[in-house]
Amino acid sequence: MKTIINFKSEVPVAVVIRNLSAGYGRRTVLHGLDAHLPGPGVTAVVGPNGSGKSTLLAVLAGVVKPLSGAVSRDGGSRTGYVVQRSEAPDTLPITVRQTVAMGRWARRGAWRPLSRLDWAVVDACMVRLGIQELAGRQLGALSGGQRQRTLLAQGLAQEPDLLLLDEPATGLDVEAQQHISDVLDEMRANGTTVIHATHDLRMAERADHCLLLDQGRLAAEGTPSEVLSAQRVPPPTCGRA
Ligand SMILES: Nc1ncnc2c1ncn2[C@@H]1O[C@H](COP(=O)(O)OP(=O)(O)OP(=O)(O)O)[C@@H](O)[C@H]1O
């Protein structure tokens, strides 16, 4: 049964999803989603493997086009999108610092040299994610957790109004997950709208808002405690990482 818990009126809405359907080729994966996501704020998208979390983020990022319905945003135009670690190419011969610097391309253009300010932002993002010691290391030589933090630093370097993260903490140890949750809290405090897909219930509980997907449909929407407490969420899995 679909459960919608409305925001209190004073909570600003940053993203409105209206009757959204999307998929791949002839296959429809998301079916008629309606949701209101707060911003600044953190929304966690939860649900079993294959329920459509990554597809929803890809639609919000503009990578997958809706088959019908629409997504609208209130204010802001810069979107940062951090894909699942397993989707990121790790054979590219680039360093951690260069990877993070790619986050500046949307502002600067891929072929224009970065300014001193750009590099200052890149270095600050690496410090924030604790990867400054890895700056010269090749992306492909990193551990899973180090690569995850590098990708998140790239997302931060975009200085987005809307940050989309696909399972940012999957496969990380508790300390690293805690670190990433702290970074998300900071982003929210700085006025960013964050939407992340997660299998980690602790991360979901720290969000302001939660969507539960089940077979491409919105099974519940509300605060994390409202959505997660009814035991509608199956035990966490390892995801695809
Ligand atoms: N590029 C693609 N082409 C075709 N089908 C896809 C593609 N990406 C995902 N799908 C299918 O869409 C459905 C939803 O997948 P999606 O990755 O959005 O789910 P998810 O909830 O993120 O899963 P997980 O928790 O395993 O990451 C699945 O049945 C999947 O096989």
UniProtKB/TrEMBL annotation:
<dbReference type="InterPro" id="IPR027417">
    <property type="entry name" value="P-loop_NTPase"/>
</dbReference>
<dbReference type="InterPro" id="IPR003593">
    <property type="entry name" value="AAA+_ATPase"/>
</dbReference>
<dbReference type="GO" id="GO:0016887">
    <property type="term" value="F:ATP hydrolysis activity"/>
</dbReference>
<protein>
    <submittedName>
        <fullName>Zinc/manganese transport system ATP-binding protein</fullName>
    </submittedName>
</protein>
<comment type="similarity">
    <text>Belongs to the ABC transporter superfamily.</text>
</comment>
<keyword id="KW-0067">ATP-binding</keyword>
<dbReference type="Pfam" id="PF00005">
    <property type="entry name" value="ABC_tran"/>
</dbReference>
<dbReference type="GO" id="GO:0005524">
    <property type="term" value="F:ATP binding"/>
</dbReference>
<dbReference type="InterPro" id="IPR050153">
    <property type="entry name" value="Metal_Ion_Import_ABC"/>
</dbReference>
<dbReference type="InterPro" id="IPR047748">
    <property type="entry name" value="AztA-like"/>
</dbReference>
<keyword id="KW-0547">Nucleotide-binding</keyword>
<keyword id="KW-0813">Transport</keyword>
<feature type="domain" description="ABC transporter">
    <location>
        <begin position="15"/>
        <end position="240"/>
    </location>
</feature>
<dbReference type="InterPro" id="IPR003439">
    <property type="entry name" value="ABC_transporter-like_ATP-bd"/>
</dbReference>
